[in-house]
Design brief:
This is Matrixin. With about 180 residues, the protein is α/β, with parallel strands linked by helices. It has 6 helices and 8 strands; from the N terminus they run αββααββββββααα. It is about 30% helix and about 20% strand.
Length: about 180
């Protein structure tokens, strides 16, 4: 019995030393996360979602590692929001991270250090969401822009399917941001 107890104590001592993270990372990140700028295209404004795009863009700003401001000059923006009338079924928004080289060539990347993100709202599906779900969706897409991947096993706005019906980043989302930056 004493051997079993000793073995159990050793095992329990070793388990906490294993480093386990619930959040998922895409492997990429912004070069300067504390000086990001976002721009909102007129397609988003005319659709009535300017405030949602602005909210999502600033959703992670309470972290001392992230700083975002709005710009009205698209050439200065890191995040660029667009709206599309294309029906993508259950996909209501997406994000593509990319770099632009000195020749102006665009390269999409998820596992590199990048400077730009394109965020698109697909209006047919997005318009069916509640007010809270639209804010959660824009914050979710900015999570991708910042390098977070989808989650399935924890409470996070980075869920791969469905909604929390909570527009604020959760502790797992913050843990991911802290791990990246």
């Amino acid at each position: 019995m004493r051997r079993f107890t000793f073995l159990l104590i050793i095992i329990l001592y070793l388990i906490p030393s294993v480093n386990v993270h619930a959040y998922e990372l895409l492997g990429g990140k912004y070069r300067s996360p504390n000086s990001l700028k976002y721009w909102i295209d007129s397609s988003v404004i005319h659709a009535g979602y300017e405030a949602r795009a602005a909210y999502g863009s600033e959703a992670f700003d309470s972290s001392p590692l992230i700083g975002t401001t709005r710009t009205y000059d698209a050439s200065q923006a890191n995040y660029k929001w667009w709206a599309s009338t294309k029906d993508m079924g259950s996909v209501v928004a997406d994000c593509i991270n990319y770099n632009v080289n000195w020749l102006g060539q665009v390269t999409a990347c998820w596992d590199c250090t990048y400077d730009k993100s394109q965020l698109r709202i697909y209006l047919p599906g997005f318009q069916k969401l509640s007010w809270v779900q639209t804010r959660e969706t824009t914050a979710h897409e900015i999570g991708h822009a910042l390098g977070l991947d989808h989650e399935n096993d924890v409470r996070a706005i980075m869920l791969s399917e469905g909604f929390l019906n909570d527009e604020y980043p959760q502790s797992d989302d913050w843990n991911g941001i802290n791990a990246i930056y």
